[in-house]
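Lecture notes, part 5. Sequence design as translation. It can be helpful to think of inverse folding as translation between two languages: the language of shapes and the language of residues. The source text, in structure tokens, appears below.
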């Protein structure tokens, strides 16, 4: 098949991890007889520098016309002045919203070879296989904001429809897996959470009677995620809770550098990006872990292009590289660490 992939390297380590990932996609294309055209565009801080805005119209137009979007990361100290009118992160939020990508899938599957890198006891991690479905285009991230000399506010608002569609997506995923869905909220305090809980209960009862639904309060979920991670299958939650819980969950996998994500809407076009940020402290050194981006590219093949076997071959190759202890610095602890390009090369060598 032929596919047009828009590539948004962004800031910090973004360009390094993306340029390590494209050869992996090219290698897969060669092996399976596909052709992928990559079209690079600006987003985030680099777009502010070149165009004055974090999401130029040309980037959005290209993304709308693409089969899929591969994104690195946005943000950095250069654009972090709290009084700045425009911020790199606004570009990321705007493109997610503009493309209607309301469901953000973040799989957490600790790899046996990386268990030593996790601060959690290995015995708790074996067999952990969770997908966190984070609502991505609503809630406090997109509510009205005010700011005066003496106060500030951020509105958290959810509509029934916004909750329904993401719960449906998560419940369908649970049905295709182990049939267990955990909905996370703060219904003992927040009105949006009480609505969330009502809607989640109704959708699962009416449309997914074969799926088991459990509700968890976000504070206790933060604890259970570390104390009994094997208890979870699919977890669905609102935007900010999902942001926080997925950084926490990355510690189960041993490194933030291992968690991929797919942001999906009703259409086929999605944005695929690692869950980590631009890591300005290590940017430009060529030592960032590219596995999360490579695994995001696998999700791109699966969800936007329908290339399941190709996606699985990338995942197997990353797994084989980890088995062979091809570790970047974030995973290596005391042993020898490879650089970004070497890690990507190790994946290419192991593609089936
Ligand atoms: C993420 C990031 C973004 C978010 C930031 C960069 C706006 O933390 O994708 O998890 O909060 O959604
Ligand atoms: Mn985040």
């Amino acid at each position: 098949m032929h596919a047009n992939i828009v590539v948004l390297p962004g800031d910090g380590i973004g360009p390094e991890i993306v340029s390590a990932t494209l050869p992996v996609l090219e290698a897969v294309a060669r092996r399976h007889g596909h052709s992928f055209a990559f079209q690079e565009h600006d987003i985030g801080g680099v777009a502010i520098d070149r165009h004055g805005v974090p999401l130029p119209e040309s980037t959005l137009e290209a993304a709308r016309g693409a089969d899929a979007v591969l994104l690195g990361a946005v943000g950095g100290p250069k654009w972090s002045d709290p009084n700045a009118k425009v911020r790199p992160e606004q570009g990321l939020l705007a493109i997610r919203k503009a493309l209607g990508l309301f469901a953000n899938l973040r799989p957490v599957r600790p790899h046996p070879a990386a268990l030593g890198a996790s601060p959690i006891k290995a015995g708790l991690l074996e067999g952990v296989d969770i997908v966190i479905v984070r609502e991505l285009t609503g809630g406090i991230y997109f509510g009205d904001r005010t700011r005066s000399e003496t106060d500030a506010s951020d509105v958290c608002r959810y509509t029934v429809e916004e909750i329904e569609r993401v719960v449906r997506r998560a419940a369908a995923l649970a049905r295709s897996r182990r049939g267990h869905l955990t909905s996370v909220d703060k219904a003992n305090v927040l009105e949006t959470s009480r609505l969330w809980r009502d809607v989640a209960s109704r959708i699962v009862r009416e449309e997914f009677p074969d799926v088991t639904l459990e509700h968890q309060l976000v504070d206790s979920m933060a604890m259970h995620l570390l104390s009994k991670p094997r208890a979870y299958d699919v977890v669905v939650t609102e935007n900010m809770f999902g942001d926080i819980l997925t950084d926490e969950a990355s510690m189960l996998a041993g490194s933030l550098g291992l968690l991929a994500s797919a942001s999906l809407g009703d259409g086929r076009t999605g944005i695929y990006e690692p869950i980590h940020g631009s890591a300005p402290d290590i940017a430009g050194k060529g030592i960032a872990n590219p596995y999360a981006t490579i695994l995001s590219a696998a999700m791109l093949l699966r969800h936007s292009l329908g290339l399941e076997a190709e996606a699985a071959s990338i995942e197997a190759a990353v797994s084989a590289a980890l088995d062979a202890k091809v570790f970047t610095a974030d995973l290596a602890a005391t042993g020898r660490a490879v650089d970004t390009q070497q890690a990507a090369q190790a994946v290419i060598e192991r593609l089936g």
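The translated text above is only one of many valid answers, since several sequences can fold into similar shapes. The chain is about 45% helix and 15% strand.
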